Amino acid sequence: MNDFDLSLAHAKTPLQRSQPNILQLNIGKLCNLTCTHCHVNAGPARKEIMQKETIDQILPWFEASSIETLDLTGGTPEMIPDFRYLIEKVREFKKPRKIMTRLNATIISEPGFEWVPEFHAQNEIEIIASMPCYQPDNVNAQRGDGVFDRSIEAFQLLNKHGYGTEIPLHFVYNPNGAALPPAQEELQEDYKREMKKHFGIVFHELFCIANMPIARFASYLKRNNQLEEYMQLLIESFNPGTVDSLMCRDTINVSWTGEIFDCDFNQMLKLASFPEEPSKKVWEIDLESFPELPIRTGNHCFGCTAGSGSSCGGSLAS
Ligand code: SF4
Ligand code: SF4
After folding, report:
1. Which of 43, 83, 87, 105 fits a disulfide with 34 by CB distance 3.0 to 4.6 angstroms?
2. Domains of the chain, CATH where assigned
3. How far is the CA of 139 from the centre of ligand 1 (A)?
4. pLDDT, tens digit, for every residue of 269-317?
5. What is the distance in A from the centroid of ligand 1 to the CA of 84?
6. 65 vs 254: CA distance, rounded Å
């Protein structure tokens, strides 16, 4: 039993799967940025991208399922050559599905990606976009020089296409270093006020997400001799009140090759949902019996349960 499982047992809060309702596809590690907090180690030189043959295997399985939401992540999902094909095919499903993408807004100003705002708006793709601060210094330090200005221009353009009003546009805040995020509601108020006042930008919700002590962020902490201290902070801040809302309970996370994980963090740590069959593909799952499968945990899970908790949809408890 790892320390996380011991904490769950001690708090009498078992972590159990419910019926899957979100299909989260990590369609590739390709990205135009190399952010310090990236748990995917994404970047411009990465070659791992979901191929059309894999998409064609997933689509009929997804259509036949009762899973209501498709959540696309990466890398930068829009950089995958068959991104638009995937969306268009899902939009042809008889039963409509909610589609969301984890957008890196700077992609909109890259040559060849001018189609993004209009395509997303036409297909009513909900956008969740990283914006670690409403001031340039923190954003540029964490994500690279010039990222703040390019993101602001992108959000202004998205607002013109109905994002932030008719179509959901959410921002993601994560701390710039080894600290827990502040209270989501208060920070959202500040963001809303400052983004409107200085840039005329409107958005729906702010999601506060803790940095996961894995991949590039773990290396960053190690370089700064902060890994142990950060892990200690996460462990000491364990909040059993977050467990019922953890995203791994109702999400199936899938790699660019179609393999199955309980969340994107487990994917990066190669903790497959089926430890005995790590190469099993998502289209081979029996959804009836899937909720009985145990969730694979590790000490990184303290990153999801610290303080107010953290998930792809922000805080989990007040
Ligand atoms: S955090 Fe997002 S935008 Fe930054 S390198 Fe990773 S995938 Fe790219
Ligand atoms: S890291 Fe993954 S498996 Fe662990 S608690 Fe978070 S979402 Fe669940």
Report:
1. 43
2. 20-305 (3.20.20.70)
3. 12
4. 999 999 999 999 999 999 999 999 999 999 999 999 998 887 777 777 7
5. 20
6. 15
pLDDT tens digit sequence for 117-135: 999 999 999 999 988 777 7
- Which atom of ligand 1 sits closest to the CA of residue 31? 8
Pick from 74, 57, 70: nearest CA to 20:
70
Nearest CA to ligand 1 atom 6: 38
Q: Is the CB of 34 under 6 A from ligand 1?
A: yes
Residue 9, classified by CB atoms within 10 Å of its CB into exposed (0-12), middle (13-18) or buried (19+), is exposed
CB 37 within 8 A of CB 217: yes
Q: What is this structure's pTM?
A: 0.95
Q: What's the CA-to-centroid distance between 164 and ligand 2, angstroms? A: 29
In whole angstroms, give the CA distance from residue 141 to residue 86.
34
| Nearest atom (ligand 2) to Cα of 262 | 3
Alpha carbon distance 20, 233 (integer Å): 31
- Maximal CA-CA distance, the chain: 54
> Nearest 5°: phi and psi at 53?
-60, -40
Q: Choose one of 239, 295, 312, 316 to mutate for the ligand 2 pocket test, by most ligand atoms within 8 angstroms of C-beta.
A: 295
